[in-house]
Model the fold of this input.
Amino acid sequence: MQTERLVLRAWRPEDLAAFRIINADREVMALMPSTLDDDQSDAQALRIMDGIATRGWGLWAVEVPGIAPFIGYVGLNEPAQPMPFQVDGQPGVELAWRLSRHHWGRGYASEAARTCLDFAFDTLQMDEVVAYTVPHNVRSRAVMERIGMQRDLDGDFDHPILAPGHSLRRHVLYRKRRP
Ligand SMILES: CC(C)(COP(=O)(O)OP(=O)(O)OC[C@H]1O[C@@H](n2cnc3c(N)ncnc32)[C@H](O)[C@@H]1OP(=O)(O)O)[C@@H](O)C(=O)NCCC(=O)NCCS
Done:
């Protein structure tokens, strides 16, 4: 897919090296449970590539033509495990993003996310999309709010893959329904 400044595309084998650098960056991963080593990064990239090949959509690779062939991902994801929230009685699909630190502060995540929302509603005919993060992930929440998602005040939840007491366990939930 094309946005004003970006291309959202299937991943290429050469994206894996750039993804390793993003996943090893402590600032990018500050609000994730940990940075990823090269094997973990490659495994995640391969799962994402597999998902796009199987469904035709997913966490797309983001390219800035003429500037950078791969700056990270923005897209739609089916959570790998059952989550504490539901979307119209179903597990639901989330919007998610992770960009290289060098490409923050330019509006790329929000621009890509808006196009992904349109794709979810217009092409996939989804009725609702969610997004979630830890309460203090100010940048991620700002993207959610910028693209018109609304906080579900009753939706705060503990992430099921994190143990009780983990500092990143609590999450806030945002939703957006098809216009
Ligand atoms: C979450 C993340 C993608 C947000 O990145 P971001 O750069 O803050 O968000 P955007 O790309 O939408 O950029 C918005 C900023 O660009 C600015 N901007 C500059 N030029 C712009 C332009 N031409 N158009 C729009 N905005 C522009 C905006 O004013 C805004 O600035 P601000 O941060 O000072 O308010 C990024 O912080 C990230 O990858 N974090 C690590 C991974 C992560 O936490 N993922 C979420 C897990 S749930």
Observations:
- Residues 7-177 form a domain with the Aminopeptidase fold (CATH 3.40.630.30).
